[in-house]
Each structure stands twice: as C-alpha cells, then as structure tokens.
What we know:
Blueprint: E1 2-6, E2 12-17, H1 20-23, H2 29-43, H3 102-118, E3 122-125, H4 135-144, E4 150-154, E5 157-159, E6 164-166, H5 169-175, E7 181-185, H6 191-196, E8 199-203, H7 204-214
Parallel strand pairs: 1-3, 3-8, 4-7, 4-8
Antiparallel strand pairs: 1-2, 5-6
Helix pairs in contact: 2-3, 4-5
Amino acid sequence: MKVDIVDLNNEVTGELELDDTVFAAPVREHLFWEVVNWQRARRRAGTHKTKTRGEVRGGGRKPWRQKGTGRARHGSIRSPLWVGGGTTFGPRPRDYSYSMPKKKRRAALRSVLSMKAEQGLLKVVEDLNLPEIKTKKAVQALAKLETPRALVVDVTERDESDNTVRHNENLRLSVRNLKDVKYLAAEGLNVEDILRFDALVLSRSAAEQVQEALKS
C-alpha cells in the first residue's frame, strides 16, 4: 500500500510504499485484549503486603485466662478476629508477569497498525525535527497535521563514543507536558499506547524501521 508523506505543515512531499503484511494485515481485535493485559501485568509492581498475626507487633501475652471468665477463649490480641490483629490470606509480594509468544505480540502490533491505516489515522511525516524545545510549536504542528491527540514516534540514534541512545529531544521535551500527546521511540512502539491515542504519527524513518522489524 502507498501512503502520502507530509511535512509539518501537512503538505504532501512524496509517497511511501508500505508493506501490506505490516500495514494492511487482517485486524485481529481479540489479540489487543490479550497483549494489553500482558503489558499491564508486566508493569505491576506486586509489592502489596499485609501482616499476618505473627508479624503484627504485640500480642505476646494471653489476654485472660482460659477458663472461668465467661468470655470466649483467646490466646492473643493480634488474632485476625481482633481489631488491630493480623490479616488472614492477605496479599503477599508476587510477580504478576507472564510469558506471551513473540509471534502473537508481533501479530497484535501488525493488526493495530493496520487498523489505524484502515481508519485513516496513520500519518507519515518526512521529518519530525522541531527547531526548538517549545510546547506551543509542537501543538501548532500537530494541529496542522490534524492530529491533536496522537502518539508521535521517531527513531533514535546510538552514540558510539559513550554507547548512549539519543532521542529526538526537541520533540520529546516539547510534548511531554501535553495530556493528549505522547512521544515514543520506534523500538518502543506497543499495542496499548497505539490504542490509547486517536492518531499515530510516524516519521518516515520510524515507519521504515517499524516495517523492517515486523515483516513476516
């Protein structure tokens, strides 16, 4: 399939041939639910914890004698039956992440990209370089592109001298305070973020990189 390439003024500057296996694949919506749940499970900290009766401070002495008081027998004021006592079967620290086949994850990503392309919500921009770090400039550019609520994706560069990854900092810093816009590096493109935003804005380099990574 062919898509128009535009500049930041939304003027067509050329065409880009996109692979149909990536951007015109069958839309398998059931995969979205599976992959988004998998992503959210991986992000869960799993640090929740309650104390059992053995971990609550105090309660070492029997509150009253076993017999003769007319009251129910108790061995500790930290029993789960008491206010301030321990918790029975409460949450414990755990790892919520689980594995998912790589083929299924890639199929879901191809499906969501194809859905955005089919809906006309995929925009390929020749160059996403802003002249300066300025949120107002980013808002104006997205307004011209008719994508005010968008996921914006660009490529990164690796600096061989210190082995660090360099992002499009002017773009990243310009949109980070916008509620309805998010910047992502091409290698971090994922199903959940694409679904969260109305439009998907890719730089030409990012579109080519994503296509190369997802070719079947």
